[in-house]
Design a protein that fits this description.
By secondary structure, the protein is mainly β. The protein is 13% helix and 42% strand.
Length: 317
């Protein structure tokens, strides 16, 4: 086709040939710019749950199978007061990463109307986030879901999408967060899935998930990465998860002053508050006894004159 076009140029006047060639070069330059490989940012895996390694018993907490965020804690919990629980079911290759086989999926059992699926997914050093997962239900499983997100460790929630139907065959759900800058580079990013419809209150039935992924574009600004990494390393606990006792460590820089240091549960209730009146600059190591607390996620919140830092701790029974 291009050859025929060039042959036909012979019948045109010299001025006409020049104009056409200039236009052709401009089109080719525009095409090259639009489709150049370096003009499209590389999207990479931030967190991934494939569930293939799940044991056959009931699951209280499921940690990510892969995470690209160094030092982060990414996990899934089924929170609520009802009789529903998590275990494993059949999986799928839909939305799988790196040719992961089907294996198992996560089965979220009814009643689910009084529970929600919490996904803790820190996004430090990543932007342009996309959450996706494969989903289906049994005949008596919840027919609708609603997805929420939090950028402050679960203290407040916003709706990410309208409620959507759940079919009886595995289908892919994908949610683009690239227009929500607050979710970028965020250590407190969480998602919450609510289960809706009459079937959600039943004793039988379930929703099933597989290949839950958070993808994003790595931020290439060194200063931003250093700031986030420094904050996360400044406040941590070990061991984590833990059963009864852990040690919370943090560093208070010279010239900084602690305004508050508390541990809260996912509802925001304060379960511990440190007396900060004698806190001096330097490294601190604080034993924390959770023997009287229930299993679940608790948040350490350190507020100083220069920053606010939150860090998740997991009590496993």
């Amino acid at each position: 086709m291009f050859l025929e076009g060039f042959i036909s140029l012979r019948i045109l006047l010299p001025e006409q040939r020049i104009i056409i060639l200039i236009c052709l070069v401009q089109v080719l330059l525009l095409y090259d710019t639009a489709f150049a490989g370096d003009s499209v940012p590389d999207i990479g895996l931030v967190h991934y749950w494939h569930f293939n390694d799940l044991e056959s018993d009931t699951q209280g907490i499921v940690f990510s199978d892969r995470s690209a965020v160094e030092g982060s804690l990414a996990f899934i919990m089924y929170q609520g007061e009802g009789q529903g629980y998590m275990d494993r079911g059949e999986g799928t290759t839909l939305n799988a990463w790196a040719n992961m086989p089907s294996g198992y999926g996560l089965r979220v059992r009814n009643p689910s109307d009084d529970r929600s699926l919490l996904i803790q997914a820190p996004s430090m050093n990543y932007t342009g986030l996309v959450l996706s997962y494969a989903l289906h239900r049994t005949t008596n499983g919840a027919r609708e879901q609603l997805l929420l997100y939090s950028v402050d460790g679960g203290q407040s929630w916003d709706t990410l999408s309208h409620s959507f139907g759940v079919g009886t065959e595995y289908t892919l759900r994908r949610f683009d967060l690239s227009d929500i800058p607050e979710t970028d580079n965020n250590p407190g990013l969480q998602f919450r899935i609510l289960f809706l419809g009459d079937e959600a209150s039943g004793d039988a039935g379930n929703n099933r998930f597989d290949n839950i992924r958070l993808d994003g574009v790595l931020i290439d600004t060194p200063n931003t990465q250093v700031i986030r990494s420094t904050k996360m390393l400044a406040l941590h606990n070990f061991p984590n998860p833990f059963r009864n006792v852990t040690t919370i460590s943090f560093h208070l820089p010279k010239g900084d002053v602690i305004h508050s240091f508390v541990v809260v549960d996912t509802s925001g209730r304060v379960v511990y508050e440190m007396d900060t009146s004698l806190a001096k600059p330097g490294q601190h190591h604080l034993p924390f006894d959770a023997s009287l607390l229930g299993a679940g996620v608790y948040w350490v919140r350190l507020v100083t004159s220069r920053s606010v830092i939150t860090h998740p701790m997991v009590v496993a029974r």
